[in-house]
Amino acid sequence: MSVFFYGCITLDGYLADKNHGLTWLHETGSPEETDCDNFYAAMDITVMGRRTFDEIARLEDAASFYPTTENYVFTHAGSLPQKGFIPVSGDPAEFVAGLGPDKNIWIIGGNTILAPLLERDMVDHLIVQVAPVLLGEGILLFTQKEGQMRFRLDEVRQYGQFAELIYSR
């Protein structure tokens, strides 16, 4: 099993604005400018929180947004309004550990899912795109309790206005 975080942050480290919005990201560029499609093609499973799912659900044809992966959403709801997304609850680290040894798992979105995985040293790869935006406040990507963790920088890429940093354990 390999666990990946792949996502975009601002220069000052925020994943979303203080209202959990991503307008800053949509105004900076689009996924077509990145290597997201190739990354996605290698994934078997996506895992996200409810706020990330809600952002996806607002998109046109959201039900087909991640068509080739099993898509899990951490939520208290028993069902979701979009086909192709499975509601789950509980501890994200325990859930991910139970997904099987031969799967590539993409952690999408927020720190609520990412932090417990980092705390248990379960994240194998961090692919972080940095947008040339300063928000000043918002939702930070990294909020794990464990203070110091080391990753190795494997590659740096540029996609339009985005710098992509690829790290592994």
Describe the fold and architecture.
- This protein is of the alpha/beta class.
- The chain has a single domain, classed as Dihydrofolate Reductase, subunit A (3-Layer(aba) Sandwich), CATH 3.40.430.
- The strands form two sheets. Strands 5-4-3-6-1-7-10-9 form an eight-stranded mixed sheet.
- Helix 3 links the parallel strand 3 and strand 4.
- The longest helix has 9 residues.
- It is globular.
**How many angstroms separate the termini?**
13 Å
What order do the helices and strands follow?
EEHHEHEEHEHEEEE
Computed Rg: 15 Å
Shape: globular
CATH architecture: 3-Layer(aba) Sandwich
Number of helices: 5
Strand order of the largest sheet: 5-4-3-6-1-7-10-9
**Which blocks of ≥5 consecutive residues have pLDDT under 50?**
none
Percent strand equals 25-35%
Q: What's the CATH class, please?
A: Alpha Beta
Helix percentage range: 10-25%
List keywords for this structure.
single chain; 169 residues; alpha/beta; Dihydrofolate Reductase, subunit A; 8-stranded mixed sheet; 5 helices; globular
Compact summary:
The protein is of the alpha/beta class and 169 residues long. 20% of the residues lie in helices and 32% in strands. The strands form two sheets. An eight-stranded mixed sheet has the order 5-4-3-6-1-7-10-9. It has a two-stranded antiparallel sheet with strand order 2-8.
SSE map:
Elements: E1 2-10, E2 14-16, H1 23-26, H2 36-41, E3 45-49, H3 50-57, E4 70-74, E5 86-88, H4 92-97, E6 104-108, H5 111-119, E7 125-131, E8 139-140, E9 152-159, E10 162-168
Parallel strand pairs: 1-6, 1-7, 3-4, 3-6, 4-5
Antiparallel strand pairs: 2-8, 7-10, 9-10
